[in-house]
Amino acid sequence: DSHIQYERVGADVTMKCGSMDWDAAVTWTANGTDIDESHLNGSYLILKNVDLSQSGQYSCYEGSSWHLKYQTSLRVGTPPKEPLLMCRSNNYPKGFYCSWHLPTPTYIPNSFNISVIHGTKDMVCEKDTIPKNRCHIRYLQLFSTVKYKVTLTVTNALGKNFTTLTFDEFAIVKPDPPESVVAKPVPNNPRRLEVSWQNPSSWPDPESFPLKFFLRYRPLILDQWQHVELSDGTSHTITDAYAGKEYIIQVAAKDNDIGTWSDWSVAVHATPWTEEPKHLTTEAQITETTSASTSSFMAPPTTKICDKGAVVGSGAMAVCWTAGLVVAAYSVLFI
Amino acid sequence: MAAADSPSAALRRDLCSRGIRLAGKMRADVVDLLDAYVEQQGLDASASVAAVEGVPLAAVERWDEQTGTQRLLENLAAYRAFRALLAQMLEEQREQLGEADAGLGRALAAVLLQVSAFAYHLEELLRLESRGIPGAEEDGPPPPPRLSLFEQKLRGLGVLRELAQWAVRSVRDLRQLAKPGPATGAAPGLAESP
TM spans, by residue (chain B) (predicted)? Predict the structure, then answer.
C-alpha cells in the first residue's frame, strides 16, 4: 500500500511502519538504502528538520521476515508564495490572456485556479495546453468602462496563496513586437538606410485597429539612440546615418489610440552604402614616395578620410586639414 | 474598385477621415478635462462609478457585426445625449463655483463645442447615405431629480469617463465606415437603402 506524504522544509517528520507495534523490530530504507537505527524511535522513523534532499521513497520491513510493511513517498517542499500574475491583450479586440508563475519553486505539485469577473459577470478563462500557466478570454464587450478583476489562487498540499489584478480594457493592450524587420543600405547614398517591417502576426485587424511605430537606431560604436515615431506605414528611411558605420536598429509597435508600447523587435544590423576606394594608400607607400623626393613636395593622393561623406558631421573639414598637415610634415622631414 | 472611386465613396472616406481626426482631438481634450475634473472636484481617480441614468454607455457586444448605419445612429444618439449632459454640467459648475473655477468651465465648454461639432459631422455622414436623421428629442430626457453636490460630481465623473470611451469607439466606428463595403452593404460597411 503506497502513500505520498508532503512535508514542509524544516519540519520534523515521524513515520509509522503501517500497523506494526511501536516495539516491533523493523528496518527502514530510504531509496533502497538502510537507514541507521539512530533515526528510529522504536519502529517509528524520526526525521528532524527535513530538507529537500530527504525527498524519496521510504520503506519499512518487518525485522525477521523482511516483509514490506509500509511504503511512502516523502515530498519535501514549501507552501506557495504569492503568485505573479500578468494579463495582456496582444490581439485586441479579440481578447486577452493572463499568465502566471510562482516567484520561488515549491518543489511539490501545485494547482492553479483563475477567476475573471467583469462587473457582475463571471467569465471563463480557457486554459492553454502550452504553456500550461496561461489562459485566454474572448472579449464579450468592447469599450466598457467597467474594470476586469482577475484572481489567481495557487494551492498545494502545504498551503495556498492568491493574487488579484484589476484593470480596464484599454490598459492591458500591448501588441507583440513588429516582425521581419529588415534594414538595407541605399545605393549611392552613404548616409541612408532603408528600414521596413511587418505588423505582428498576432494583431488580428491592423486595418481597423492600426498600429503606430517607434524606431530606434544607433551606430554600434555609440551608446545613444536616435528615435523616430511613425504614425503610419511600415517603412522608414534613415537619412542621417554616419557613413561606413554599422548600425543597430529596432522597432516597437503600439495601437494608435490605446494601450502601451510593445517590447522592442529583434535587432537588425546594417551599414550604409560606401563607395569602393579608387586608390589603396598605405603609410608605407606615403613614406616610400616622400623619401624618394629630394626637392619637391608631393601632394598626397585623395584619401578616404577627406571624402566629404565619410567623416563625422561638422568635423569633416578639420579631419581633411589635419591629414594634409600630417603628410606635409612627413614630406618636410624627408626633403 | 469602381465603387471605391465613386465621388460618394471618396466623400465618405473624406468625411470619415475628418471625423476620425475630430474624435481623436476630442478624446485627448476629454482625457485632459477628466484629469482636471478629478483634481478640482477632489475625487478619487480610481473610484468606481455606477452606471448613471441617461449617460450613454460605450460598451457594446458584437461590435464587429454592426452595420454602418447602426454605428452612425448609435454614435449620433450618444453625442446628442452628451451634448445635453455637458450643458447641464456646465450649468451646475457655474452655480457651484461661479467664476472661481473658470478654467474648468472653459475646458467643459470647449469639449461641449467639440461634441456638438461631432454630432453635426455624424448627421452629415447620415445625410450622405440618404439616411433619415432621427429627430432630436425637443425636450431631451426628463430632468433628473436634484442631486446633492457630491452626487453631481460623481455623475460628472461618469459622464466624462463614458465620453472618453465613446471617443475611442467613434474612431474605430469611423474606420470601419471608411472601409470599402461589400455591394450588399452588409456589416461592416454601410447598409444600402431598402
Answer: none
Residue A148 near residue A168, CB atoms below 8 Å: yes
Nearest Cα neighbor of A178 from A213, A204, A148 is A213
3-class DSSP assignment, residue B27: helix
Please report the pLDDT score of residue B190 as a whole number: 46
A210 contacts in chain B (CB < 8 Å): 175
Residue A71 pLDDT: 95
* Residue range A232-286, pLDDT digits in tens: 899 999 999 999 999 999 999 999 999 999 999 999 999 999 987 766 555 555 5
- Taking the alpha carbons at both ends of chain A, their separation in whole angstroms is 104
Q: Which residue of A has its CA nearest to B162?
A: A145
Distance from A148 to chain B by nearest Cα, in Å? 12
Give the chain B residue nearest A257 (alpha carbons). Answer: B168
pLDDT surpasses 90 at A101: yes
Whether residue A247 contacts residue A270, with contact meaning beta carbons closer than 8 Å, is answered with yes
Pick the CATH number of A84-167 from 1.20.120.350, 3.90.226.10, 3.40.50.1100, 2.60.40.10: 2.60.40.10
Q: What pTM value is reported for the model?
A: 0.79
Nearest CA in chain B to A170: B165
d(CA B63, CA B61) in angstroms, rounded, equals 5
Sequence-distant (6+) residues with CB within 8 A of B184 are B192
Chain B residues with CB under 8 Å of A148 CB are none
Residue B53 has what pLDDT?
Answer: 79
- Give the distance from CA A107 to its chain's centroid: 24
CATH architecture of residue range(s) A3-77 = Sandwich (2.60)
Q: Establish, for the pair of chains A and B, how many residue pairs have beta carbons separated by less than 8 Å.
A: 48
ipTM of the complex: 0.86
Which residues of chain B are within 8 Å of residue A144 when distances are taken between CB atoms? 57-59, 165
E runs forming strands in chain B: 60-61
Can you tell me the distance from the alpha carbon of B143 to that of B88, in angstroms, rounded to the nearest whole number? 10
Q: Which CATH number fits domain B10-45+52-132+168-178: 1.20.1250.10, 2.40.100.10, 3.40.630.30, 1.10.3470.10?
A: 1.20.1250.10
Q: How far is it, in rounded angstroms, from Cα A16 to Cα A42? A: 10
Helix (H) or strand (E) holding B16: helix B7-40
